[in-house]
Specification:
43% of the residues lie in helices and 13% in strands. The radius of gyration is 21 Å and the shape is elongated. It holds the Pfam family RecR_ZnF.
Amino acid sequence: MEFSSKLIEKAVNEMSQLPGIGKRTALRLVLHLLKQPKEQTGFLSQALVAMREDIKYCNSCHNISDSVLCEICANKSRNHQIICIVEDIRDVMAIENTGQFRGIYHVLGGKISPIDGVGPSQLNITTLVEKVKSGSVNEIIFALSSTMEGDTTNFYIYKQIADCEIIISTIARGISVGDELEYADEVTLGRSILQRVPFEKSFKNN
């Protein structure tokens, strides 16, 4: 792709690094921004810089937050004795959109995947185990995608807390095997949360 401006070329190259954005789409976006008032582009750049510099991670659940505690963990009306374990913020958003879960979350920040060089020490597992062993938790719900990596992560965490006297459950398999939570429709995901099953039963039946 030939560019008449090095500035446009650089902007397109940067924009095309975003997921799902190819060079042609990046060019359309850049040209659109170029047509907007300068202050509008300034608002966008300021918002991106502020997000990158000021974003925090919740001290309790590791969710992305504007403060040391995210809004969910700071909400006293939530049931803090039930923890739903998810991979990342997109899963939190997907489950919250169902309106069916009133507990809190624990964001792992990924899944165990030896092929990709991701081991347990690189995920937020230690803080979860400490929280469970402190006695402040009655139930944890595994809500990772039903992939090999998701199942491996579930089982690893299960072994770490198997001796604790809590309910360990997993969302019902209304979500197809291999599907990511963020792509599930709200009704199916909501039912999967409400109809969760004991974790031991889930892997013994596989």
